[in-house]
Amino acid sequence: MGKEIIPDFQRGQRLSAAELNRIVRAVRQQIKGVAPGIRVDYTGSEILIKADFSSVTTDGMFAVRVWQDGGSTDGDEDTKCNRTYQVRTLPATAISTGGEELGSAMTPLKRRPAFGPLDVPSDLSDGEIGTGFYDEDDVFFLYDANETLDVDAC
Asked: Are residues 99 and 117 in the same domain?
């Protein structure tokens, strides 16, 4: 079982502001990476929990939005794609609007072909859907930026 973060108290007992702040910090640490769509805040008189379950999964991998923010090539017959991405949680509606920023200048962990062009997300509009996860040290990794092979139909 996990570490107990809510102290034992009697019904009707009021907790101090310092104790409530400690609980909020502990809850935030416990849910980081497991439930990135949940926010916990303390207003001074109450603890507020806001949940957006659109990006929460049970296996640790969750959907994100990505926008191209660097690199110089999508790849060609001689060069591997080297694009990097800014990543935000799904409620994001633009590269700097909505959701929470998870990282920038991120290279996807999913293998890219050694050569050949990729169709990659742009830096415009509402972004593309990708996937990412937090490791056991609560470090975020972009797994897939929704890059696809850019091939002509036969």
From this structure: yes
